[in-house]
Amino acid sequence: EIMLSKMNPDVEAIARAVQSMDAAALDAESVAGMIRFLPTADECVLVNAYEGDERALGKAERYFRALTAVPGFESKLRALEFKQGFASAIGAVRDWTECVDR
């Protein structure tokens, strides 16, 4: 829940941002944290099997439930991480090629 406290408090908004791969709503640090704390297969099954009042769930469980409703959520997060890191990677390659050219 520590990672979630640094993000948008609305887990549904986070899920929508993942669905649309919205880099403006999910900065690189948030995406990296989300990938580090992806729900396990067992956690996905447990939160999705819960049939009680969703308000009784903790923030982490509500987050997992919203995230797992996004088709391909892990792939989307990893693609977003790649996209966000691409510009800095290109800059590093340019620096290396300039060194080689000298």
UniProtKB/TrEMBL annotation:
Gene3D superfamilies: Formin, FH2 domain. Pfam families: FH2. It comes from the Eukaryota. PROSITE patterns: FH2 (PS51444). Residues 1-102 form the FH2 domain. Belongs to the formin-like family. Class-II subfamily. PANTHER family: FORMIN-J. This is FH2 domain-containing protein. It comes from Micromonas pusilla (Picoplanktonic green alga).
